[in-house]
Write a structure and sequence with these properties.
- The complex is a heterodimer.
- Chain A is mainly alpha-helical.
- Chain A has a domain of 101 residues.
- A 3-stranded antiparallel sheet of chain A has the order 5-7-6. Chain A has a two-stranded antiparallel sheet with strand order 1-2. In chain A, strands 3-4 form a two-stranded antiparallel ribbon.
- In chain A, a hairpin with a 6-residue loop joins strand 1 and strand 2.
- In chain A, helix 1 runs antiparallel to helix 8 and helix 3 packs antiparallel against helix 8.
- Chain A is elongated, with a radius of gyration of 24 Å.
- In chain B, helix 3 runs antiparallel to helix 4.
- The chains are: A mainly alpha, B mainly alpha.
- At the A-B interface, helix 3 and helix 8 of A face helix 3 and helix 4 of B.
Chain lengths: 220, 79
């Protein structure tokens, strides 16, 4: 039952104080803004109407994340929890939001019943380890598209194929320092997005001091 | 000149060859810039204040990292 108009109260707004001029910043729904900011850096700020910062964060963080992926030959963002190849860097990379999430999907798919990433695509798929079973379609796809892998790298184990060798060491040998630089770029983008999420959740980190308030009000 | 530049940046192979000539240390500069920008923008709302604080953070961050690098290089030379 709807409340009578007289009983309706104004919805309280959650605001933060700008450290620059002391003005109020309407945070709207802070939880939703934080989730949006994690999903797409800057999107939470756009939702709150903080357009300048939203565009700034979106361009800077997504730009550096994508630059890192490009520098690392598209191999540096993957999720892997296998013994011997635990990808701790992904914990930081996941902070960049949805742009890193295909890695989780690909990892789950590769270790699932199908034994291959989605659409047998190597995009953000974790590297194969020695003795790992994969579908024939994925083995054929790697043979055709990956310069580090050829048909001799697989044992035939119908209906699957078994990989021999360590794919990640081949990536590192071919890419050299670019693997590390790309990893660093994507990690830093993810870690800095945590600050962006906090800014969307609670407003600017800098709070005005008493001296700032006195200086603005003109009182001694 | 412009056509050559355009061709260079449009071709990933040429761009990768160009990047290979750049010492690895310079690839840290965009990261210092990004960290400074995000630090500044999460502490301020006003665009002018963000610009000023970005330079402030970049000088501090670059200075500290430069000192660390100088220390490491000195240790490497005399150790």
């Amino acid at each position: 039952m709807a409340l009578p108009r007289d009983n309706q109260r104004p919805v309280p707004r959650i605001v933060a104080v700008s450290p620059d001029d002391g003005s109020a910043i309407d945070l709207r729904n802070p939880a939703l803004a934080a989730i949006l900011s994690w999903a797409v850096p800057g999107l939470g700020h756009l939702y709150q109407g903080r357009v300048f910062k939203g565009r700034l964060f979106m361009g800077a963080i997504l730009g550096v994340f994508l630059a890192g992926m490009w520098l690392g030959g598209g191999r540096v963002v993957y999720a892997s929890w296998k013994p011997g190849d635990t990808r701790w860097a992904f914990v930081c990379q996941a902070g960049a939001g949805l742009v890193a999430m295909p890695a989780v999907v690909q990892s789950l798919a590769l270790h699932g019943a199908a034994r291959q990433p989605l659409f047998a695509s190597p995009f953000m798929a974790p590297p194969l380890v020695a003795g790992q079973y994969v579908s024939r379609a994925y083995a054929d796809r790697l043979d055709a598209s990956d310069p580090d892998i050829d048909a001799d790298d697989f044992f035939d184990r119908p209906p699957l194929k078994q990989f021999r060798g360590e794919q990640v060491s081949r990536w590192q040998r071919r890419l050299g320092r670019w693997f590390d630089i790309g990893t660093l770029y994507t990690m830093l983008a993810g870690m800095l997005n945590v600050l962006v999420v906090y800014d969307a959740w609670a407003g600017p980190l800098g709070t005005p001091t008493d001296e700032d308030r006195k200086a603005r009000s003109g009182s001694p | 000149m412009f056509a050559e530049l355009t061709a260079t940046f449009a071709c990933p192979v040429l761009l990768a060859a160009l990047a290979d000539q750049v010492p690895g240390i310079f690839f840290g500069l965009p990261l210092v810039a990004l960290a400074s920008l995000v630090f500044a923008a999460t502490h301020h709302e006003d665009p002018a204040e963000i610009r000023f604080a970005t330079i402030h953070w970049a000088v501090w961050l670059g200075g500290i990292l430069g000192l660390v690098l100088a220390g490491v290089l000195l240790l490497g030379r005399f150790a």
